[in-house]
Request: fold
Amino acid sequence: MTPLAQYIARLVPGWAVCPVLALCYAVMLIAVLIASSNDMAQIIYIDVRGQ
Amino acid sequence: MTALSTLVILAALLAVPLAWLGRERGIDLVALLCAAVLAWISPLSAAWIVGLGVGLPLAMRLAQQHGGRAPLAGVTALVVLGAFAAAQLSSGIVWIGGAFFTLRQLHVIAEWWMGRIEAPSVAAHLRYQLFLPALFVGPVHRLPAFERQCQRRRWDLGEFLNGAERVLIGAFSAEFIGNVVVANLRARVRHGLADSNAFLRDWALSAADWVMLFFNFAGMTAIALGIALMMGIRLEENFNRPWLARDLLDFWSRWHMSLTNWCRDYVYRPVVALTRSTLAGLVAAMLAIGLWHEISFYYVLWSFWQTLGVVLSRTIMPKIASQIPAPARRVLAPLAILAWLALARPVIGLLL
Reply:
């Protein structure tokens, strides 16, 4: 089990672990896809300089 | 996330199947892909990293055979540092991974000079320097540990899934929490404090920037560590819950740990050994950390500010903290740390 699955297993009954985990993954993926369309400022630790 | 960094992350994800094409040669293929990607988006970075990646091990072997270990170590360290400074100070050059490469290169030179490692083979050195997931966001991993990981790695579905999950959580942290949630909160703070004192406004915005930086950088590091884990390689951790730190020194030992550990081993300890002064070691290490971020007078002052914070947190703060109940201390310590870190910008702004 992945760390997130282990965490969810502590909070919900056994039968609900897979659906809740899938829901978490889906929400995160959708949020990343929506957010990554924004043009974000460069942070100093990301060593891609002089663009 | 900038376009180029997104491109490198996608390339690193594409490199995962390559890494499993052969247990022995898989990571060599990842290095080849890394060199190709670098050559495409930043030929200068590729020429520098590959050139030194090939040239240094050969020069080390020659020096081992004919003597001259110390001069070679000294000259190459100066060349690497000079190139790093030149790249930082010149504008208009697309420079990818140079800051992390410099630290890794100096680590190899120092360990070899001290006799702790033999001169690496060209393949091993290139494999180490051109490890795509850690190219531009770290961690500053170490050659001996990396080589051990390369030799011992084996396919494990559980580890692969752990890595994939970490990539997703890292992307969520960097892209959504950092760049959307915290960025929106920051915009509200900016709007809310529009008419207030400029110093207080800058302090509050600086605090918001630190929180955003945490989610961005920890998230990007999680992506790098996750992709490495998908390749069967466990790299050094970079964060250990920095906002649970008890004081500023504790914070710096939990934040960007691979950089802090590097500065401890190659700056702090040698300076303390030479001067017998822990304060001199601390100042030197903080200067190295500051100037690594950016070679500027701002970061020189920033380094002194952080040194002052560490000194205060180990001299005056324990006396104050001892009068505060333990549960309240646990809540107040991270807030005090954030306040001190954020205060650097408005204070230095007044000085400059």
Observations:
- The helical segments of chain A are 3-11, 17-35.
